[in-house]
Amino acid sequence: MEKVFKIAVLKGDGIGPEVVDAALKVLDKVAELFNVKFEYKEGLIGGIAIDETGDPLPEETLKLCLESDAVLLGAVGGPKWDNLPQDKKPERGLLRIRKALNLYANLRPVKVFDALLGSSPLKPEVAKGTDLMVVRELVSGIYYGEPRGIYEEDGKRCGRNTMKYCEDEIARVARKAFEIARKRRKKLTSVDKANVLDVSALWREVVNEIAKEYPDVELEHLYVDNAAMQLVRRPSTFDVIVTGNIFGDILSDEAGVIPGSLGMLPSASIGDKYALYEPVHGSAPDIAGQGIANPIATILSVAMMLKYSFNLDKAAELVEKAVEETLNQGYRTADIYSEGTIKVNTQEMTEKIIENLERLYRELSF
Ligand code: NAD
Question: Looking at residue 366, what is its pLDDT?
């Protein structure tokens, strides 16, 4: 019998609906080829949810996500809602959904496609072959630790935050990272500041303990300052990087510029029960409604969904290959266009990827 996967679809604002529609077309093709069924149910989030319900994350949307096997999100925000108070902004909907679904591991793959080597700010010979994944702890660490705040001490203003991790929080994200490394090239780099921070010393100790459960994965430790340097010196030597919230925030953005375009970067945020997939980019209000957005980040996000939520590894691999093939054939949306390549819009890029998906499926006889 055909398996049915329930997907909550939150298109959001700006180019969100355009890129999500593109990704759903790819999923439809996967369903047809692999004899599975995806059931899509749409919910409101972000600015459009504020306009229609007064809340960036309506109760109904949250309920829909809690009843789904995976969540696909476009993007939220835009100038129309920029002047609302902090707790009413579209972006607040995103923070709330991550917390409500307890999505403690954020996965950001960074892959440099040969066809786009010229777009990287790094020298082509350095960027070539980069294919890494940053796994960032997302719901704890210094962004959430108490005590925090600006206060007065000896008549002076002082500010503080607390970087705190308990062993269970470290262990669960470390296990996710080891599992992911197992599905890739079996190398894990744990990043900390254990030479200075006590919380990092515990991080390292716990990661070493968890490593015993994964003897097939090679583990190394790097201090965060060194990791920041090595990422631009030898990015292609990394496989999976696991780190805490603040280090991961910075390193994933640093790594994200290596491929040279925001329109290419997918992401996933996963917990024990739920998972949310979304492109790294925002709602791009400057190009919304023109049909020219690059759908690849969202299409690669659904490839992650196939792999990490539905265990459809072959289908995921095929979608990634179809994207790569389409780039090799010279098709480019405006954001990655260069002379000598073929400029296409969102719909054309999606159609080319689907064509390649079908052809590769036949050729590779999955
Ligand atoms: P952005 O990522 O939306 O856009 C930055 C630049 O990259 C723009 O020039 C845009 O046109 C381009 N770009 C982004 N994605 C693209 C794509 N798929 N194809 C082609 N070009 C693309 O960042 P921003 O302009 O700083 O923010 C715009 C809005 O999005 C703001 O309201 C911001 O708060 C929100 N935002 C939301 C998310 C999210 O939903 N996760 C993330 C970042 C920003």
Answer: 57
Q: Is residue 330 in contact with ligand 1, taking CB distance under 6 Å?
A: no
Chosen domain end from 263, 281, 296: 263
Residues 140, 163: Cα–Cα separation, whole Å? 8
128 plus 10 within the same structural domain: no
pLDDT in tens, 117-141: 999 999 999 999 999 999 999 999 9
Q: How far is the CA of 284 from the centre of ligand 1 (A)?
A: 4
Q: What is the CATH number of the domain that holds 70?
A: 3.40.718.10
Q: Which domain holds residue 5?
A: 1-104+271-366
Token pair for 152: 């007065």
- Host H or E run for residue 126: helix 124-127
Q: Tell me how far the alpha carbon of residue 265 lies from the centroid of ligand 1, in angstroms.
A: 12
* Chain segment 281-310, per-residue pLDDT in tens: 999 999 999 999 999 999 999 999 999 999
**From the candidates 168, 225, 272, 313, which is the catalytic residue?**
225
Q: Which residues, given as ranges, of the chain have pLDDT below 50? A: none
H/E stretch holding 21 reads helix 16-34
Residues 11 and 95 in one domain: yes
Out of 234, 263, 292, pick the residue that ends a domain: 263
In the prediction, which pLDDT does 164 show?
A: 98
Pocket test for ligand 1, best of 45, 84, 262 (most atoms within 8 A of CB): 262
pLDDT of residue 3: 81
